[in-house]
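Predicting holo structure, beta-L-fucopyranose bound.
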Amino acid sequence: MKHLLLFSLAASLCIFTCAAINPPKPYGPLPTKQQLAWQDMETNLFVHFTVNTFTDKEWGYGDENPDVFNPTALDCRQWAKAAKDAGFKGIILTAKHHDGFCLWPSKYTEHSVKYSKWRNGQGDVLRELRKACDEYGLKMGVYLSPWDRNSAKYGTPDYITYYRNQLKELTTEYGDIFEVWFDGANGGDGYYGGAKEKRTIDRKTYYDWTNTRKVVRDNQPDAVMFGDGGPDIRWVGNESGMGSTTNWCLLNADTMYAGGDYAKFLGEGQEYGKYWVPAEVDVSIRKGWFFHENEEARTAENILNLFYQSVGRNSNLLLNIPPNRQGLFAENDIKSLIGFKKLLDQEFKNEVKPLKVISGFNRGKEYAAQNMADNNPNTYWATKDNVTTASAEFDFGKTVELNRVLIQEYIQLGQRVKKFKVDAFVDGQWKLLTDGTTIGHKVIKKCELTKTTKVRLTIEEAKACPVISNVKFYLAPMN
Ligand code: FUL
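Done. Tokens:
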């Protein structure tokens, strides 16, 4: 009896309160937990390393003698340390580039480290990177070029078996893989086991991607796959480090194929795309993807700019650092990386915190505007279901100076915001600080150095009630 009473009391309490605290329903396509984890990583390193490093090329023809690959002092720990010190979360290595040379001793080819003089054929770059990533607490990813200019089988159905076998090796023998990178460059002239000819494939059908991707899904369910049009992560459509200011994480990925001409969609995503496919900005610290002695590394300031153009625009940054012929990151590259980290820390060192955040548009007290300033990524400000235009005021309680605004949507419930603006209260009136279109995982806006007592965020247009998890203001150094 006592239990029954307690139960009905609890049930009626729930009916009473649940009505008030219903969270907004998810809207549109949603990220998987793997995609969410990936979006949280924000910055990763790319490592392009193979025979090209030694032949001074960008694309090897596929006829390189395996002995060409001979790093004199390979040290993946040096790469991992640099990545860690610079705040990057993972490293993706070109296990096989278009030339077909494998950096691991694949059972399925003689075109690999196993057949080179390097460490008497006993070396395995993947294995070393695995160890180094584990030591430094980094995640590891692999790039396996679908195009293979060495393989005699390329262009025939046999090659697909070969490719899947290699994918299986990489996804079963090297521990947890967080990202598998499928490059879009496909088919053309090459060595092809001595045929030395041009081979073209049907980009839409040749790789039978549904079944090829299955190898990764089966063996590494937590990995995300990158490809021009997804399936999990999309290319941003350029290699110059430029994320798009309007950037939906949505894409009609099923209608796209690697190497197709979709630059605009890849950059901006598609507002009504059917799938969640966030963008990755891949860019090299040097002109080429592979190491060439005469190319200069970007400066720390330049990399900071890449950060704003990628992470600041709802994308991840994948920054390539090519090891040299010793098998090491060059000193200048490391200097720029570490310099970048210092600048980044400076940028976000001086947070200007509001005393209180208020809004007349709260969905209920669980979804109050104050949630945007509580440093908890799991709480958010939300409005009632039919309210898609709303504002909130961040009151600093005194005059502050700021020049950066960071905003995050709670993307677990979908990407919603189409247009927003941020005003500052200056000399008795609201003055526009910055504005934009989409938000997504994160946008960071630079704005004029402004003295103000309060700032107002206005969601001007949204596809459904806005759900904002985080808003921060900073005073970054003025250079
Ligand atoms: C391109 C490739 O052709 C380049 O060599 C490089 O690997 C880059 C990341 O992707 O499509």
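Confidence is low (pLDDT under 50) at residues 1-18.
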